[in-house]
Amino acid sequence: MRVIGIDPGLRNMGWGIVDVEGSRLSHVANGCCTSKSGDLASRLLSLHVQLAEVFAEYHPETAAVELTFVNSNGAATLKLGQARAIALLVPAQAGLTVAEYAPNTVKKVVVGVGHAQKEQVAHMVRTQLPSAKLTGPDAADALAIALCHAHHAQFSGRLEAALAKADK
């Protein structure tokens, strides 16, 4: 199974892709879609085009996006929400369902602590994916989201198999 994790952002939208084979995880690629200053519509279009290119190149089979962290600046939160819409739209256009995880859930799964710092997240991503050359903190966060989803999917699959076996 090929998993893409997406860390939404209007300036920097991180993405990270891992392959899952049984309990084995391997790094495929990571990067960041960026938008420069300018009108919002053009920035959103730029993010959409870049993320769609990632999907066209790597063909992920499932996607996960981080939930929006709401802060006290309403305008900034709204803009982040619009960028997050792009992070949800592109996988949906590819026919994928999208899992969503709170930042604390991602950190707890990857680091073991729900309030871990960015450096701790990046360190644990490098530990779990030693071949990964992280292109930046947003890409590291996106890989963490992909790892979180991979772990949840593995558990979900085991649970479903156990329930099916119990029904026999």
Q: Could you state the CATH homologous superfamily?
A: Ribonuclease H-like superfamily/Ribonuclease H
Going by CATH, the architecture would be 2-Layer Sandwich
The structure class reads alpha/beta
Number of domains: 1
The third-level CATH topology is Nucleotidyltransferase, domain 5
Provide a descriptive summary of the structure in words.
The chain is an alpha/beta fold and 168 residues long. The protein has one domain (2-116, 132-167): Nucleotidyltransferase, domain 5 (2-Layer Sandwich). Helix content is 53%, strand content 21%. It is built from five helices and five strands. The chain has helices at residues 40-58, 74-93, 103-110, 118-128, 137-167, and strands spanning 2-7, 12-21, 24-34, 62-66, 98-101. A five-stranded mixed β-sheet has the order 3-2-1-4-5. The radius of gyration is 16 Å and the shape is globular. It starts with a strand and ends with a helix.
